[in-house]
């Protein structure tokens, strides 16, 4: 096993918080002294099986623990998923059926093991213990915490204060997640910072059972490609790990500039010395290196290079991104503003006019300068809006 | 089956509230039309097995339903008792073991069936369903209500506002009580007014199951012998139904005057026309009639008359109540004030002095008029304070 210093230097990269802070080094030292690997817990409720780069921040940390010789335990929350983690939510989740959850779980694992080493992972389903748990034991769990403590949790507090509904069953979720830690005897539980309350429940319940309590290691929440909100499918600012190399490269290469440093730190193994200067000197080159690194993790270096080439062709106007939408129009004369609105590029003529005035609209490579222009559409055309939005206009046959 | 009017006139006696008010008559009429008796639920958690007259208010109502042909279902909360009903509590109840609960349940039923007809009662233990209930079903129950709704319940609200702890498991109790109603398909649930929230949970859960919901019939809380606080063992103002005929008669005969009317209404079948006038004309005679009636319910008319005779002897100073405490003193000379304090009749000399000035202290039948009096105690003596407090003073042998 690597030394304590080596382990900490790998494991602490990108970490937002360790609770309690002083116990991680002790646990690692004990593991080195005894030769017994630490048990590193990650609990996932496969409510939606699509993994994006935001999820991989924690998974990459698991992989680092594995590479240092520790034991990862993945808890598939087949039972808890039926309740749905209320963490960070502002409304009650819909309940899922067990079949849905198990189907999701299968898809989830296929993606999960692109990052985490399958051979070095113990997989547990929490239905194994919760399906057998008596009502009496449930009340014992529920008796471990007060209503006031629950309502101190930030998202619950906000909802309660704003008179948004909190269903009583949502109070059971953190206790179930906590109980998982007793079952698998975890030493460290990983999670995003929004998991702090739940992870501390595990610590509390383990102590009540007379066990050495786990510590919580919390990773920051990754911002999405827009650089403003957390990465989430529902915000449309995500990079899915099942996307094509081209799409993945394209999305990463075009992220908001301010993300570049944190994405390097959280999504690659590159030393800080390598990327810090590059970001300052040449942000586009830095994003290219970042995108190459990330795409290589899910494909290979050759695929990444090929994607980089295609991205270059797109930016020089020679090629369209693979996800360019196709819009069907009848041949004929169109006012440029009407055209832009009918293909869905703008919601109002005012917006379209401003973009034309800023030289931001091209038709098949030619910059449009007059917003009163009439266009004869009698063949395929490519409409480009700003740097990155493309529309392929094709003709509806009029000979039907 | 008796007519709707007859049934309502019996059943509505003493009732504080029916929720919803208009449904009781409908349920009874339907039962008359179909010949199917109503299922009348009472749930009890035998946490403490001693039944006093306060508990009998609801039991007598059950008996009335039985006498009208309806089916009583007694739910012994062997499972819920392990949690403990938080209703009206200002702190979390200690959890009881199943053995303790079952032992209590046995004692409880022996007393319960002094009032309710055993032959016409279906007894169910809620452990039958809760011991088999899955965690998943528990979360479904918990999902039927919000935290805000729970915190609207008066006792929870008070505790939450006063920063007194409410354990999360206490939120499960009303849902369990409610679920009992689904299992036994109750039409009416009886309870004290402090049970309103829980009984309405049953109504709500039955509706969610697509059942015709039960209605709640709430009896007032009986005040204890002091006429101030609710009857309760812990306030010392109770009349236990296992007490001797003499003690029972003595306690009832000596209740605060203002209780007489409500006790007649809630604890006897006497028509209001009989007791109303009597109370106005001769309160002592009214209380004598009340005590005779109540004692006759648990013993018989002869035992009640005998108890009345002994009570009369006590009031005329010829006999002591059977529960008179015996106080042991060494023979010798005592100042009257010291004596009254050493036997525990008063906490301070000031109080004792005032009582003597009001001619409220007798020694063996003689009114004490001088609070400086010295008494030679060389034989047994009876100290009487006010009308109803007696102490039997006996000598400690000094010849040891």
What does this structure look like?
Two copies of one chain form a homodimer. By secondary structure, chain A is of the alpha/beta class. Helix content of chain A is 45%, strand content 15%. Chain A contains 18 helices and 13 strands. In chain A, the strands form three sheets. The first copy, chain A, has a six-stranded mixed sheet with strand order 1-6-5-2-3-4, with helices on both faces. In chain A, strands 7-13-12-9-10 form a five-stranded mixed sheet, with no helix packed on it. In chain A, strands 8-11 form a two-stranded antiparallel ribbon. In chain A, a hairpin with a 3-residue loop joins strand 12 and strand 13. In chain A, helix 10 (172-184) crosses helix 11 and helix 12 (245-253) packs antiparallel against helix 15. The longest helix of chain A is centred in the C-terminal third of the chain and has 16 residues, at 283-298. Chain A is globular and about 80 Å long. Chain A starts with a helix and ends with a strand. The relative contact order of chain A is 0.09. The mean pLDDT of chain A is 90. Chain A binds chain B through residues 79, 82-83, 92, 95, 130-131, 133-136, 138-148, 150-151, 156, 160, 163, 165-172, 175-176, and chain B through 79, 82-83, 92, 95, 130-131, 133-136, 138-148, 150-151, 156, 160, 163, 165-169, 171-172, 175-176.
